[in-house]
Amino acid sequence: MKDIATPSRTKDILFRHGFSFKKSLGQNFLIDPNILHRITETAGLTKETGVIEIGPGIGALTEHLARTAGKVVAFEIDQRLLPILNETLEPYENVKVINEDVLKADVKTVVEQEFAGFEQLMVVANLPYYVTTPIIMKLLEDKIPVNGIVVMLQKEVGDRISAKPSTKEYGSLSIAVQYYTEAELAFVVPKTVFMPPPNVDSAIIKLIVRDEPAVSVKNEEFFFTVTRTSFAQRRKTILNNLVNGLPGGKEKKENIYAALQKAGIEPARRGETLSLSEFAALSDALLNEGVH
Ligand SMILES: C[S@@+](CC[C@H](N)C(=O)[O-])C[C@H]1O[C@@H](n2cnc3c(N)ncnc32)[C@H](O)[C@@H]1O
């Protein structure tokens, strides 16, 4: 079967439907079957896998997903793409398109209704870059029961998500995502595989969702408050960031100092040097010292 994702076929489809790209919706469509093949391979799909796609566009990735997975449910915000998707995905009976903003959609209920009985559930997508982080955090924080997430995103965001401590990319996003998943930057993608080409470099990231979070903490919300606060000013010490950033921090400077000591963390260190387990020990120690 002829692929949608060739430059000439994509141009023809867009021209026939009088479609013009909306930059504000992050519309950069894939026009290289080779990359699509590598994405589905990275996701390790089988006919027992259910797939949630976010932003099918004209269906370039969707058809590769439909060929390799058991069922695909795709959320597309742009109503103008529906007649195109009707045409391009016509040969595939295992695809359902939902015309909704994925950030507003009740994804959990959709999963319950559409994927009962599937052994594995994956999110696979070429994400709209203006909402990359909110989409990934919604999937993780809402605890959508997926086994993994394989998505195209800005390389710079992929580097931050997969960063290790003591690197300039490591920050609260690395911690938030690595708390829930094992993150790996799978491969970098050239701008030439998109129509139109995006302004930034792209990459595919693979997130394997953990059965249990990477570390156990007494209070998840406070753990994330502590990590965000610790990176508020990267040049400052962890002690200064916590004193200036935590609610009531200035009055509780001594308790913060004691918590750092109890967690075995030198107060003069910078947030970017702390591992996930050190942040977990620190947030629990702060709670024990009455800082929260
Ligand atoms: C980067 S394009 C990917 C298109 C297609 N999957 C491909 O690879 O060629 C992103 C797609 O996400 C859609 N989109 C943008 N914001 C969205 C949102 N909040 N919810 C669902 N879809 C969205 C856009 O309309 C566009 O079709």
Automatic annotation (TrEMBL):
Residues 35-211 form the Ribosomal RNA adenine methylase transferase N-terminal domain. Belongs to the class I-like SAM-binding methyltransferase superfamily. rRNA adenine N(6)-methyltransferase family. RsmA subfamily. Its EC number is 2.1.1.182. It is found in: Cytoplasm. It catalyses: adenosine(1518)/adenosine(1519) in 16S rRNA + 4 S-adenosyl-L-methionine = N(6)-dimethyladenosine(1518)/N(6)-dimethyladenosine(1519) in 16S rRNA + 4 S-adenosyl-L-homocysteine + 4 H(+). It comes from Domibacillus epiphyticus. This is Ribosomal RNA small subunit methyltransferase A. It holds the Pfam family RrnaAD. The lineage of its organism: Bacteria, Bacillati, Bacillota, Bacilli, Bacillales. GO terms for cellular component: cytosol. Specifically dimethylates two adjacent adenosines (A1518 and A1519) in the loop of a conserved hairpin near the 3'-end of 16S rRNA in the 30S particle. May play a critical role in biogenesis of 30S subunits. Signal peptide: none annotated.
